Amino acid sequence: MSVGHDKCQGGAALDPHHPLCMPNALESIHHEHARLAEALAAANEAMRIVRDDGVLDPARWREVRRFIHEIALPHLRHEETTLFPRAQAMGLTNEMLEFLRRDHEGLRFLARRAELSGLTGDVELLNLDAAEVVDRFVRAFDEHARREEAMFLDLESKH
Fold it and tell me: Using one digit for the tens of pLDDT, what is the confidence trace for 14-26?
């Protein structure tokens, strides 16, 4: 909370959603994306090997699946429940918020499609259909993170 800001202190004026009471949205998004960077880099490397050599060992395949289901998808939910309300309070337009939500839905669609194509936890053989969809997911997630950071950087510059 911002020290000394009357909207952030207790009593009738308490407004925990006031932009000055919240952690910096850009710092939050950077922190979250930095946390994801190593896992995203590993997923990108695994998919680069598939694109270049057509080879993906089962251990790397499981790591890519873990990235999608245990890191990326929970991250999207976290943004929607925690970061989006903060950003909206700071002035993120409904149009921008809707764009981000559609982007998240597109990523979820690709994750579901990868599962339907054969990306399972016990996979031992590379399914090329799943590999193509997973590659699209990894690239789309990377692009999404960059767009999102640019949006929040623009929002922060207006404050």
Answer: 444 444 444 566 6
